[in-house]
Design goal:
Helix content: 25-40%
Bound molecules: S-adenosyl-L-homocysteine
Shape: globular
Strand order of the largest sheet: 3-4-5-6-9-10-11-12-13-14
CATH class of the largest domain: Alpha Beta
Order of helices and strands: EHHHEEEEEEHEHEHEHEHHEHEHEH
CATH topology of the largest domain: TIM Barrel
Number of domains: 2
Number of helices: 12
Length: 363
Amino acid sequence: MSAAKLNLLDLDRPGLEAFFASLGEKAFRAEQLMKWIYHQGVTGIDAMTDLGKVLRERLQELANIRPPAVVLSQPSQDGSCKWLIRLDSGNCIEMVFIPELERGTLCVSSQIGCALNCSFCATGRQGFNRNLSAAEIIGQVWQANRLLGGGRNGERMITNVVLMGMGEPLLNFDNVVKATSLMQDDLGFGISKRRVTLSTAGVAPAIYRLREVSDVSLAVSLHAPTDALRDELVPLNRKYPLAELVAACKHYIAGKLQRQITWEYVMLDGINDSPAQAQALVRLIADIPSKVNLIPFNPFPGIHYRRSSQTVIDRFRDILLAHDLTAITRKTRGDDIGAACGQLAGQVQDRGRRQQRLARLAS
Ligand code: SAH
């Protein structure tokens, strides 16, 4: 059964080297294989002519290359594109490509659903099914690159990757780290280190671990300048309150050149958008090299929040700017196809809820 075979997309460069070593092969085999997979976009081991026939046959017995299947492509009027990706047992995730003048950003998912339940996020409503494998995460980039005609003429459409799709990347730590290292590896997608951004709701201890093993840019979904409000919007804050989160962020960039934290702040009408809250935000992050992304709230069916008005967003931004913070309002892209921040839904079979239902039926 092919499903039992090792999926080579699950291994980063050290993993592939160890795999080839276990076959009695030299480490440079990993380089050859990565060029085929990530530069040439090849999934058939047969086509990898410089590996030699005997090795190819051995590889075919043990392994294959299985990117996740793209089942639906939805282009937006504004040039962005959303793809639906089918995984196992009816689960689907979504990824989005956002072209801009000087760059192309791919937004990928790290989990099926999300367990964090932030009060303003559509993904949280669907519950959580499971972590994505490294293959399923790097496989999203592999598929998008192929669909965008990537690599031909040496030009890549994807210049930036953000882990801002479905899921909390730091709760799928090992797979996310493997996949991001393949994004950055010259023999992978060769994306410059700073252009791979991991966005977290604030798993403080994992931010310390991340610094030890990775060099991705860090974005933090802040959304509130006080614990009382953040406890409500991002329930994870009850576990890792602001003081702990901010300390972890400082540590993450300490001693690094040209590094900053990107703070994401969703603008919710009458909830977190007052001048006093802008002032409190300034005080909270004053001594950290920072950029603030103000995200106009994107509504979805059944949600009671409203987007702050443009005037209120501008007023909030101006207070940040007046205190020498870099602040931009994120342009909403892809909202006609449900691809804007916080709208990604896919199809999630929530194990927790399913099991509860089954238990109720059984009792
Ligand atoms: N769990 C990670 C990764 C998800 S990123 C994190 O929380 O950072 C998705 C980004 O979109 C986060 O900043 C999230 O807070 C924001 N977001 C979620 N729902 C939104 C909505 N309805 N409108 C605008 N932004 C939203």
